[in-house]
Amino acid sequence: MKILQIITSLRIGGAEKLITDMVPLFIKEGHTVDILLFDGIETCFKQQLLNQNIKIISLGINTFVYNPLLIFKLIPIIKQYDIVHTHNTACQYFVAIASKFLNHKKIKLITTEHNTTNRRRNIHWLKPIEKWMYKQYNSIICISDKAKENLQEYIGSNYPIITIYNGIDIQKFMHATPLNRDSLGLKDNFIICMVAGFRPQKDQDTLIRAMKRLPNNFHLWLIGDGERRKELEILTQKEELTNRIKFWGIRSDIPQLLKTADIIVMSSHWEGLSLSSLEGMCSGKPFIASDVDGLHEIVNGYGILFPEGNDKALSQIILKLMSDKTLYTNIAQKCQKRAEEFDIEKTTSSYLAIYPNKL
Question: What would the DSSP string read from start to end of 141-194?
């Protein structure tokens, strides 16, 4: 098959990470797979794919991804493929529109819903447009059962919606080599780590406020970047935590950083099925997460959940884990065992299984 994966960019994020990990596996199975970016800005994910000689088509650099002129750039490109698979809102909409200018029967459209909800669903006048858009797709993949349930509640059940759970490279995160803590000047400190983009969906704020409640030998690593970084840096300064919170930016050595940390946290307002969370659980460290859709489903009964936005509860859980070694080890082992269920090889096989059935 000739497959085109379309996404707004390859900045840090779960959808971007999924594409980066899956496309080489698709190619390994003998398929021709290219990637199209609305915004071809240079990122570590993009470079990782280019290093493997994977073709990346960019419609521009620092492009406004909702520019309707992109539809006309899409038309001559997508007609060259058997399968066109979209991720993210602008791509979903524009490919659906572009397909009306083509022989739709020869090109099968697939899309993936990467979250349990989104802000579009609160705009009532958008709902008919959303339902039209989803109708253009031959298959709609949701990355968790909760994401599927919420989407069906929103648009109805008369759509070809299926669940395929996200996956990660289990071996990479399970067997990563930690950094030298002595060289980082953190030999006798406890390290808490969160890997996530700085976007409204995420809630680094609660984790930063929790740090204020923890002893001075507790340090926080925030790995990622995004539109809210400055806001979070200001909050860090306001709470007088600049010497205990490190903003790492976008990194390519995340497995090593997770392996170095003592506790992994995902503080969020909502999720789909967070790859960063699975990676954290796989690292062999206890995992703590907000009790919200998309996290509850994978963490409950394995890691520890805390009420969304409750920095006091979060700090108490962290202190309990660091003082109770039996609990620490038990939670870490259960998290790693849970993460092993979400292998990227299984995800890739599930994706490929739906493609031929639609040709």
Answer: EESSHHHHHHHHHHH-S-S-EEE----B-HHHHHTPPPP-TTTTT-TT-EEEEE
Q: In degrees, to the nearest 5, what angle opens at C-alpha 92 toward C-alphas 26 and 339?
A: 50
Given CA atoms 48, 8, 12, 246 in this order, what sign does their dihedral have?
A: positive
Segment 343-353, tens digit of pLDDT: 999 999 999 99
Q: What angle do CA 221, 223, 225 make, to 5 degrees?
A: 135
What is the structure's pLDDT at 359? 43
**Mean pLDDT, to the nearest integer, of 103-124?**
86
Closest by CA position to 29, among listed 48, 3, 61, 59 = 3
Backbone phi, psi, residue 41, to 5°:
-55, 145
Contact between 256 and 296 under an 8 Å Cβ cutoff? The reply is no
Residue 357 binned pLDDT confidence (cut-offs 50, 70, 90): low
Token pair listed for 198: 């700085």
* Total number of residues shown for the chain: 359
Residue pair 246/219 in contact (Cβ under 8 Å)? The answer is: yes
CA gap 247, 253 in Å, rounded:
14
Assigned token pair, 109: 């459209």
Which parts of 267-334 are beta strand (E)?
287-290, 304-306
Asked if residue 141 has pLDDT above 60, the reply is yes
Amino acid (1-letter code) at residue 28: K
Report which of 49, 50, 57 is spatially closest to residue 22, judged by C-alpha positions. 49
Find out whether 319 and 312 touch, Cβ atoms under 8 Å: no
Between CA 347 and CA 332 the distance in angstroms is: 24
Beta strands in 65-119 (DSSP E): 83-87, 108-113
Which residue matches tokens 């490919």? 95
The 10s digit of each residue's pLDDT in 171-201 is: 999 999 999 988 888 888 999 999 998 999 9
